[in-house]
Amino acid sequence: MIITSTGIMNGFIQKQYGGHGTQFNENNVPSYSLPFKIEKIPENTSSFAYILEDKDAYPVVGFTWIHWLGANLQREEVKENESQTATDFIQGTNSWISIQVNQQKREQASYYGGMTPPDKAHTYPCLPYFLINPKMITRSPYRFYKLLFSVPF
Question: Which residue segments constitute the domains of the chain, with CATH numbers given?
Answer without folding.
Answer: 2-150 (3.90.280.10)
